[in-house]
Description:
Elements: H1 2-7, H2 27-32, H3 60-64, E1 72-77, H4 80-91, H5 97-108, E2 117-121, H6 126-132, H7 136-148, E3 157-158, H8 171-178, E4 183-184, E5 194-202, H9 206-217, E6 222-230
Parallel strand pairs: 1-6, 2-5, 5-6
Antiparallel strand pairs: 3-4
Amino acid sequence: MQALNLLYPKQCVGCDSFVEAENSLCAECWRDTPFVEGAVCDACGVPLVGGDADDRDHCDDCLRTARPWSRGRTALIYSGKGRRLTLGLKHGGREDIADTAGHWMARAGREIISDGTVFVPVPLHWLRLVKRRYNQAALLALALGNATGRPVIADALIRPNRTRSLERLSPEDRFAVLSDAIAFNPKRDLTGREVVLVDDVMTSGATLAAATRAATASGAKSVDVLTLARAVKGA
């Protein structure tokens, strides 16, 4: 094993530095990664200033926009190193980030993960899946399943229609574009299940809202959401 470590030294998932543990961050990257800690919005997981960790308050975005899911948590703020790691997984072919991120998300989502939890990833349209080669949300869901021992139903939801890019769209336009974009897979059954939806990043919440409606239509008993990162204004 020592010989293998010399031949193939472990590298930080955030940079090229050598680390002792596989799929980990070096001390510098850990310091620069914006992990979410302390009091958070109960609907999306964004940090709340001046709150108590046991509070069930909501951020301004979630007060303005009703969320169809029950609770939400996130591991990182989508800025700086958090943004680079998320984009590396999503567009940079860095599938290895998912295993590490799964442990971060399991820690962030410990309040919403129960013995009855089943992880369900937000789906990609098949054309986008072919182009990207993998669904980053599905990789995160599988990593969460490995980290927590909870089951994963990777194809419980489908995306029958390809939607336009959501970049540069207003929150209102995002919700309009995605209103009917996600459906439940008739070959899968979520009846009575405690679903935790998994995605890489939450911006407006439009994608997760559409996925929540589809999971509810499939008979889910409850729906919570868990993301790797959350976009925050000014971050």
